[in-house]
Amino acid sequence: KRSVFITGCNRGIGLRLVKEFLNNHNVSVVIAGTRNLANAGDLLSLGDDPRLHFVEIDVQKEETIKTAFTKIKAENLLGESGLDVLINNAGICFPLNVDAPIDREGVRVNWDVNCTGTIAVTQNFKPLLLKAVARKGSAYVINMSSIMASMTDTFGPMGERHMTGYSMSKAALNMLTRCLSMGWKDEHIGVTSISPGWVQTEMGGEGAEISVEESAEGLIRFAMIMTEEHSGKYYNYDGTEIEW
């Protein structure tokens, strides 16, 4: 059985991941993180399952990351087994057209959430990942990337250039995945980038290719079978490898 902590669970893919993980009997604990629990009614409505716990965490605010870690540890939400899988799902998309006037604040927020926030969460939760390594031999980090981060498949199915700032931040996230996978290899923490696909969410739009349910189901299948062989690589939600 695997325990899971997911950030960005108030809507979209994050919310669906919580639902689908709870449908999997091989999941022992699901910790759902969101910026503001008071505004997360859909998430809180899932609270009947004793395996599910909620924490407030804003990846742009270091104090909330530390508070979430302290709460999980103090309340022993993971028991003695530690954290098997950390899913850095929290993300944001500010448009940036390559021909438009530069929006420095939009670019900064893309990077702050998608890159800096991800490494801050991962570093802070490393002790819980190491606890799982001590008990089970390995633990895993999934960084939610995008097909639009691929320099080979440049902008993927959307084929537009107004998302440059988002693509830049997710490409940087992929570099973080590679660096962490090498840096933590000897500690048996695997780190992988996964694209959820072009999904019918608020961010992806109604014209996207796949449903949030299909994306979440694929992501969970992958999360439950991950091994250290997947570390440092870049996958689509259906398990096919993507070229960087």
Automatic annotation (TrEMBL):
Keywords: Oxidoreductase. One of its GO terms (molecular function) is oxidoreductase activity. CDD domains: carb_red_sniffer_like_SDR_c (cd05325). The keyword Glycoprotein does not apply. GO terms for cellular component: cytoplasm. SUPFAM superfamilies: NAD(P)-binding Rossmann-fold domains (SSF51735). Pfam families: adh_short. InterPro entries: Fungal_SecMetab_SDRs (IPR051468), NAD(P)-bd_dom_sf (IPR036291), Sc_DH/Rdtase_CS (IPR020904), SDR_fam (IPR002347). It comes from the Eukaryota. The keyword Oxidoreductase applies. Belongs to the short-chain dehydrogenases/reductases (SDR) family. This is Dehydrogenase.
